[in-house]
Amino acid sequence: MIDINFSKFFNNNIDLNFQTENDHLSFHDVAIPQQTHSANVKFVTEPGLYDDVDGLITSKKYKLKLMTRVADCVPIYLHDFKNDYYGLIHSGWRGTKNHIILNALDIFKNKGFSNFKNIKVFIGPHIKDCCYEVDWDVAQYFSFFKKNKKEKKWLLNLEKEIIYDCVTKGVSYKNIKVADICTFETMGYESFRRDGKKSKRMLGIIG
User: Fold this and answer.
1) Which residues of 19-53 are buried (b: 16+ CB within 10 A; e: fewer)?
2) How far apart are CA 202 and CA 195, in angstroms?
């Protein structure tokens, strides 16, 4: 069984000695991407901090937990329920623009692991198109946005971009679930857009 978790993270830096109160999570079995807003994804077999990647994929046999840190960006959880391979992706607008989810799915396929129809996708809490205002220099790269005429901005829908990529690749639409939570408008969730540098980070974990 693969566990999915999403919770608050109280520092912007990684403390490799961090443990939860119940000692359920310790960093001896956690793989962490550096997160540079890239579209890079890596298959990993050992715990540690991985440079210049925003997504990690592994197999259940390596007994790893994968982690990401978000405060508006999209955490994407992937699980091949036939072969017990799983991944966790950090997808901001840059990663989404550069199709990081397709790079992740390609790793599943190229390693010979997966039929895309056996992959379940969960899109975690993130900033929604009700609140994600961008200028045209960003919106022009995307297909799913609407004009906010009052503010002369565009409202970007990252989850639709990600879902489109997944379905186009062959993931079954019925295997894609989305958290109905906007981090910007929901107090109790961290939002860099809302709180700026005062914002903390939230942890996404799978494994």
Assistant:
1) eeeeeebebeebbbbebeebbbbbbbeebeebeeb
2) 14
**For residue 98, what is the DSSP state?**
T
Task: Residue 195: give the domain boundaries.
Answer: 4-127+159-206
For residues 52 and 40, is the Cβ–Cβ distance under 8 A? yes
pLDDT tens digit sequence for 159-191: 999 999 999 999 999 999 999 999 999 998 999
Q: Which residues contact 53 (CB under 8 A, 6 or more apart)?
A: 33, 34, 35, 36, 38, 40, 41, 42
Question: Does residue 160 sit in helix, strand or coil?
Answer: helix
Residues in the chain, overall count: 207
Q: Which residues pair with 123 in a beta bridge?
A: 76, 178
Contact call for residues 193 and 66 (beta carbons, < 8 A): no
Rounded distance, CA 7 to CA 9, Å? 7
Looking at residue 200, which CATH number applies to its domain? 3.60.140.10
Number of domains in the chain: 1
pTM equals 0.89
- Residues 21, 61: Cα–Cα separation, whole Å: 26
Give buried/exposed letters for 121-153 (b at 16+ CB in 10 A, else e).
bbbbbbbbbebbbbeeebbebbebbeeeeeeeb
Measured CA to CA, the distance from residue 200 to residue 192 in angstroms comes to: 8
